[in-house]
Write a structure and sequence with these properties.
With about 210 residues, the chain is α+β, with helices and mostly antiparallel strands. Helix content is about 50%, strand content about 15%. The chain has one domain: Transferase(Phosphotransferase) domain 1 (Transferase(Phosphotransferase), domain 1). The protein is built from seven helices and nine strands. α3 packs antiparallel against α4. The radius of gyration is 18 Å and the shape is globular.
Length: about 210
């Protein structure tokens, strides 16, 4: 992913992984993400997409703001921000898109004025109208994962403080419990933490 300046303003371009083995998976993910942005076109809280370039490079508007991970502790109006985030999530679901990875705070931006913006639809599920079976079940599963992620982002470790309204949204899933148990060995096998430390060190050195 890279940022560039154009006649229409600052843009972000997402491209497939340079590794030939991973590139084919990356192209499919980028095309799926482009379809998700098409469905969400003009929706508040979602970046504007300029579509695909050369059939494999997704071009998006650059959104000013910080990740929720960086800004959550400094939110001046916590309730207002999360009310707006829930509204964006519900509108996204109504358009037939389930994000699937909202639990990562890096996928929600806090824009100036403390308004939310949801990004990175690389693993999104798009509901196909009139279909049943696997697509419908997968969409409903990921829709609930989005709502559970919203609760996690809003309350953190204090989930016992959920309001009655939020408690109605939260439904713990078996797949989430399994994922939490597998997270540590998976990070070890993929060297994720090592790569994260190296990336942070490079950013520190370049800064």
């Amino acid at each position: 992913m890279r940022q560039l300046t154009s006649d229409v303003g600052e843009l972000v371009v997402k491209s497939p992984h340079p590794n030939p083995v991973l590139a084919s998976f990356g192209r499919r993910a980028i095309r799926r993400e482009a379809r998700a942005y098409d469905r969400l076109h003009g929706m508040s809280g979602i970046p504007h997409s300029l579509g695909l370039a050369a059939s494999e490079h997704l071009v998006l508007e650059h959104v000013e703001g910080q990740t929720l991970k960086a800004a959550s502790a400094r939110l001046e109006d916590h309730e207002r921000f999360f009310d707006a985030l829930l509204e964006a999530i519900r509108a996204m679901h109504a358009a037939g898109v389930a994000h699937g990875d909202l639990k990562r705070k890096e996928n929600t931006l806090v824009r100036p004025g403390e308004t939310p913006c949801i990004i990175d639809f690389g693993v999104a599920c798009l509901r196909r109208e009139g279909t049943r079976g696997f697509n419908r079940k997968r969409f409903e599963l990921m829709r609930q994962m989005d709502l559970n992620a919203y609760i996690k982002l809003k309350y953190g470790p204090h989930i016992d403080r959920m309001s009655p309204e939020d408690a109605e949204l939260h439904r713990p899933l078996l797949i989430e419990r399994v994922a939490r148990q597998a997270r540590t060995p998976w990070q070890f096998l993929t060297l994720r933490r090592t790569r994260k430390r190296r990336r942070a060190q490079r950013e520190s050195d370049s800064g």
